[in-house]
Input
Amino acid sequence: MHTQSLSIYRRRHFTNIIAVTLSCLAAGIGLFFLGWILWTLISKGLGHLQLSLLTQDQPPPMAEGGLRNAIIGSLMMCAMGVGIGTPLGIAAGTWLAEYGKGSRLAAVVRFVNDLLLSAPSIVLGLFVYALFVVQTGGNFSAIAGAIALAFIVLPVVVRTTDEMLSLVPVQMREAALSLGIPQWKVTLQVLYRSALPGIVTGVLLALARISGETAPLLFTAFGNEFFSLDPSGPMSAIPLVMYKFAGSGFENWENLAWAGALFITLFVLCVSLLARTLLLRKRVAHD
Output
């Protein structure tokens, strides 16, 4: 009996060593390629990350210029996308967590939201193209681009709001309701206040995701070589410029593409760090 137990222990110990070794190897391979990508991006883009990138517009081939029009376009469309998707997502997540939980309709909504969360962005872009661009006479616009980005923001915010509100202790709801406070006021003044850091984290992560999307904007915003603040017309964005410049064969355009890629990476890094900070504060507050 003792010999059998020792044999089982050794087999489990050996299996554990193999599993840990394979896990560390997989993590090491992933970190190696991630470091390689970041090093390539920094080495090729850092030297071209200059002030002119923010003050000059997209140049013609073999000329000096920057990405001001693309940066402003990206900021405008991302802001509009978050502005459209966030209120709808918070409202839908609140309904799932507080009013529709346990119902069949809520289960269907969660399933559809999960499908939308995993849908390829190019499919969402084609959907908005058929739904909005074609119906407006083929008018590409920043509004259409923002709608496409909002479809990416929406499921992220819905999932985050649903989960954050579900984590709020039931005792807080019961204590507030026992005082005669209406359900809507409990949601606004108690539940949202407790879940706010988590919800904001979800919004920031959604913003980081859409900031680098290219495919939806190809079918909606289309791009613009000139500076424009008109959301009803075509508008440039950093991912669109990168898509156009990267394989152009012109050295100045390729340099701007690397600088734009590094700019987006730094932006996503800052947004992700801010989201992690908010989430960490929430965990510390709960502890």
